[in-house]
Design the sequence.
């Protein structure tokens, strides 16, 4: 079983996107022991405009970990029906709390 990670971010280091940087870093780590339910990690990246496209519906609905710039995904969080963890690229979580409190 693969752990599905989706990246929606404008964060870059030089010419590398956050998705590319995460994939490169994962090569330095091994997955947990055979007792883990995950045998691999799949990292995908899409833009905000691509989240609601029909061809990305399965990818988005099966995403378990979302690494994102909060303003880029908050309006589309309802699409992530299997989401277990949202990792913000922003420092702190005040933005997320304010959004959910006032929406």
Sequence:
């Amino acid at each position: 079983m693969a752990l599905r990670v989706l990246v929606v971010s404008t964060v870059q280091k030089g010419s590398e996107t956050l998705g590319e940087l995460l994939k490169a870093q994962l090569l330095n780590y091994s997955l947990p022991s055979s007792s883990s339910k995950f045998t691999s990690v799949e990292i995908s990246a899409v833009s905000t405009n691509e989240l609601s496209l029909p061809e990305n519906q399965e990818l988005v609905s099966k995403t378990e970990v979302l690494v994102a710039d909060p303003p880029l995904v908050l309006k589309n969080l309802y699409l992530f029906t299997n989401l277990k963890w949202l990792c913000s690229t922003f420092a702190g979580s005040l933005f997320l709390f304010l959004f959910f409190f006032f929406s």
In short: The first strand starts at residue 2 and ends at 8.
